[in-house]
């Protein structure tokens, strides 16, 4: 909730100087963008609008910090206590990188003028939005529990929040350490084998009928009658032709 209030180291890469009892838990890739804008400015006030295309976002046990790659006189750093970030979630657009969003609760003299609500967006161009969100949500839960117990953020127990290591280094991220549980036991019980196959009866097809060796009964008599009728027909045709 403060602009340009983070103490930076004088030598490159100009990382931030930690507060007393502050421990870094997450560091984003260097191509992470930031946007700060007033959602509903008060009448007569100048709306807030700050953006950076590339930079590095950090989560510590006390706050989140953003350091732009290219610093200007208007924007050198951003920081906000963990408990002052509300409605945090990851947005997944159809096109473009994932965006982590939050509503910032400003305080007096923090540099977030303009009144009204202030929306923070972190654009993870090289991935890491869900790692960032997982670490933040676990940390915020512990910070709020510590506040209810009357302790400060520096008293948060961090045993379950190991320091983040970039996936390119081959080390697991905090989200993996937090969410990874005991390996699942996949005990597959094989079905019992059938000792004896049931008896199967196959019906035999009827044998082909035997081919008769001779003509059917009455065949010769029918043949003689057919020949006699044909002769009578031909004789009748010849006789008729002669009469004409």
Automatic annotation (TrEMBL):
Domain of life: Eukaryota
One term under GO cellular component: nucleus
Example GO molecular function: chromatin DNA binding
Ranges of compositional bias, category Pro residues: 209-218
Biased composition (Basic and acidic residues): 221-233
Annotated InterPro entries: WBP2-like
Region: Disordered, residue numbers: 202-233
Name this protein carries in UniProt: GRAM domain-containing protein
Species this chain originates from: Tuber aestivum (summer truffle)
């Amino acid at each position: 909730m403060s602009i340009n209030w983070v103490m930076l180291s004088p030598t490159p890469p100009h990382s931030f100087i930690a507060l007393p009892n502050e421990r870094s838990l997450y560091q984003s890739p260097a191509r992470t963008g930031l946007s700060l804008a007033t959602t509903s400015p008060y009448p007569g006030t100048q709306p807030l609008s700050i953006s950076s295309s590339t930079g590095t976002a950090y989560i510590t046990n006390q706050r989140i910090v953003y350091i732009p790659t290219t610093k200007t006189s208007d924007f050198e750093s951003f920081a906000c206590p963990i408990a002052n970030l509300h409605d945090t979630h990851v947005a997944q657009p159809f096109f473009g990188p994932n965006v982590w969003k939050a509503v910032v609760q400003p305080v007096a003299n923090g540099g977030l003028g303009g009144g009204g609500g202030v929306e923070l967006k972190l654009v993870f161009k090289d991935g890491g939005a869900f790692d960032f969100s997982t670490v933040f949500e676990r940390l915020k839960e512990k910070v709020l529990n510590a506040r209810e117990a009357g302790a400060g953020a520096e008293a948060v127990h961090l045993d379950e929040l190991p320091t983040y290591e970039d996936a390119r280094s081959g080390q697991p991220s905090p989200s993996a350490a937090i969410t990874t549980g005991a390996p699942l036991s996949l005990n597959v019980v094989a079905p019992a084998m059938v000792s004896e196959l049931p008896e199967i009866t196959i019906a035999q097809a009827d044998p082909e009928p035997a081919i008769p060796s001779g003509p059917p009964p009455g065949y010769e008599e029918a043949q003689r009658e057919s020949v006699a009728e044909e002769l009578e027909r031909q004789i009748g045709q010849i006789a008729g032709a002669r009469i004409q």
